[in-house]
Write a structure and sequence with these properties.
14 helices; 79% helix; elongated; MotA_ExbB_proton_chnl; transmembrane; transmembrane helix; flagellar rotation
C-alpha cells in the first residue's frame, strides 16, 4: 500500500539522514519517553471520543482495503451493472428487479460483477434505492433528497476516524514537550552527577520533543489524511450511483443515465464516452 511506502520513506529519511550526518541512533532509543508520549496520546484519544468514534477508527483499515480499489476499471463495472439493471427495468418493468435486489447473490446480473458484490457499501446503496423505486412511485426530488441525506450521513460517520486522529496528532508535540520537561527536571534533580552524565540526561530528555513531533507529523497525521481521502473516494462512488439513478427516474434511457453517472466521476478515474458505451453494450452488459 502507498501509505506503508510513504511511512517507510519518512522513517528512512529522518533516521537515515541523522546517521549520515554522523549521529548515533543509540541515544534516540528512549522507551520511557515513548511510553509517556504514546500512552498520553492513546489516553487522550480514548477520553476525547465516544465508543462509536473509537470503533470507527479501529475498523477504518477495512475501508482502506475496499475504497483503495475504486479505480477506472471498477467504475466501468459499476456503469455496466447499472446499465444492465436499468435496461431490464425499462424492458420488463421495475417489478422485474424485485428478485435481483432481494437476493443479489442469486441474481444473474449481480453475479457478473463479483468485485462490486463483495463491497457492501455499493450493493446496499443500489439495492435499497431500487427497492424503493419498485415498491413506491417516488418523485425524483424526493429520491434525491433522501440519497443526499444518506450520503451526508455517511460522510459524517466516515470522517470521525480522521477527525479523531487529527486531534491526536495536534496533541502529540505537546506531549513530547511534557516528556522533555520531565526529563530535564529529572536531570537537574540529580545534583551529584558530573557534567558529562548531566549532558547525556538532558540529551535523552530532549528526545521526547523529537518523538512527539515525529509521531504527530510522520505517522498519525498521514494516517488521518489517508482515511479522509479514502472516505472521499467512497462518497464519490455513492454520488455516481445517485446521479445515475436520478437520471433514470427522470426518464433518461439507460445509456444516457450511465453517461450522467460518468460525468460525476473525477477525471482521473472517468472512462471516456466511447469506452463506456463500448463496455456497457459489449462485455459489460
Amino acid at each position: 500500500m502507498l501509505i506503508v511506502s510513504g511511512l517507510i520513506v519518512v522513517l528512512l529519511s529522518v533516521f537515515g539522514g541523522f546517521v549520515l550526518s554522523g549521529g548515533s541512533l543509540g541515544p534516540l532509543y528512549q522507551p520511557t519517553e515513548l511510553l509517556m508520549i504514546a500512552g498520553a496520546g492513546v489516553g487522550a484519544f480514548i477520553a476525547a471520543n465516544n465508543g462509536k468514534a473509537i470503533r470507527a477508527t479501529l475498523t477504518a483499515i477495512s475501508r482502506f482495503k475496499r475504497s483503495a480499489k475504486y479505480d477506472k476499471t471498477l467504475y466501468l463495472e459499476l456503469m455496466g451493472m447499472l446499465y444492465a439493471l436499468l435496461s431490464k427495468a425499462r424492458r420488463e418493468g421495475m417489478l422485474s428487479l424485485e428478485r435481483d435486489i432481494d437476493e443479489p447473490a442469486q441474481s444473474p446480473i449481480f453475479a457478473q460483477y463479483p468485485r462490486l458484490v463483495s463491497d457492501p457499501l455499493i450493493i446496499l446503496f443500489i439495492t435499497d434505492y431500487l427497492r424503493l423505486l419498485v415498491s413506491s412511485a417516488m418523485q425524483a426530488h424526493e429520491l434525491d433528497e433522501l440519497m443526499l441525506h444518506e450520503i451526508e450521513g455517511f460522510e459524517h460517520e466516515a470522517g470521525l476516524p480522521s477527525d479523531a486522529l487529527y486531534k491526536v496528532s495536534d496533541a502529540l508535540p505537546a506531549f513530547g514537550i511534557v516528556a522533555a520537561v520531565m526529563g530535564v527536571v529529572k536531570a537537574l534533580s540529580a545534583v551529584n552527577v558530573g557534567p558529562d552524565l548531566m549532558g547525556q540526561m538532558i540529551a535523552h530528555a530532549l528526545v521526547g520533543t523529537f518523538l512527539g513531533i515525529y509521531l504527530a507529523y510522520g505517522l498519525v497525521a498521514p494516517l488521518a489524511s489517508r482515511i479522509d481521502r479514502q472516505a472521499a473516494e467512497s462518497a464519490k462512488m455513492l454520488q455516481c450511483i445517485r446521479v445515475t439513478l436520478l437520471a433514470s427516474v427522470q426518464g433518461m434511457p439507460p445509456q444516457l443515465a450511465v453517461e450522467f453517472g460518468r460525468k460525476a466521476l473525477h477525471t482521473s478515474e472517468r472512462p471516456g464516452a466511447q469506452e463506456l458505451e463500448s463496455y456497457v453494450r459489449g462485455n459489460g452488459a
